[in-house]
Amino acid sequence: MPADPRDVLTRPAAVPDVTVSYGDHPDQVADLRAPAGSGPARRLVVVVHGGFWRAEYDRRHTDPLAVALAAQGHPVAQVEYRRTGQPGGGWPGTLTDVLAGVTELPRLAAGALPGRVAAGPPLLVGHSAGGHLALYAAATAPAAVGGVLALAPVSDLAQAYRLDLDEGAVAALLGGGPADHPERYAAADPRSLVPISTRTVVIHGALDQQVPIDMSRKFVAAGRATGGDIRLVELPKCEHYGLIDPESAAWPEITAAFRSLQDDR
């Protein structure tokens, strides 16, 4: 693992093969990466980046992750969306953008990467706030999502608000706390939406200082108790950023969990 785990956020990577638009706003786009080799067409993988939904973080910091998945033979789309601090970001634009992207990208990717994208709903890989958005998409539009790999997801917005994660990130997303906008939390908080019927694997590092692992433990326990197809993988020596770093010791666990989402599908 690099001396500073945050190095992955700015590590140079190959440029994407093509960028497509799923809406009219400049941030309603996705970068596509063709799968390496000449193997059979596979289901699209949509990477949903984190950054606590804030404008200063964009899809670029998931480039190493996306490149590594494409190298394993997967067509990959890095979806962008409007974020807090931007016009149209926050409630509801951030959430509706991701829903629109997840729904439209299989068609757009199949057109841009002919013969490389198999039919069917995409697999979502979401990290941190992107994990929240991936879980939200699966809960809200289950037919549009083939599986979710949630990496250190913000899976309980009410708790994240109480913990003041990233100094008010949830309040910025939803316009206040649960007492101010209970209907928004009811609609957007994965913890309020269990069980999620889509097959889901949650991976969380025990050393995570950005999103506490206990949040994932409680979320997965609630999902399993209500019949959800969900499991938790805990990595005792991993922090927050190693989960999206192909050079980290956590990477074999990430790829193994990702393969498990594709079993029998």
Automatic annotation (TrEMBL):
Keyword Hydrolase in annotation: yes
Pfam families found in the cross-reference section: BD-FAE
Top-level taxon in the UniProt lineage: Bacteria
Keyword terms: Hydrolase
Signal peptide feature range: none
Keyword Cell inner membrane: no
Domain BD-FAE-like: 31-220
GO molecular-function terms, A-Z: hydrolase activity
Protein name as annotated: Alpha/beta hydrolase family protein
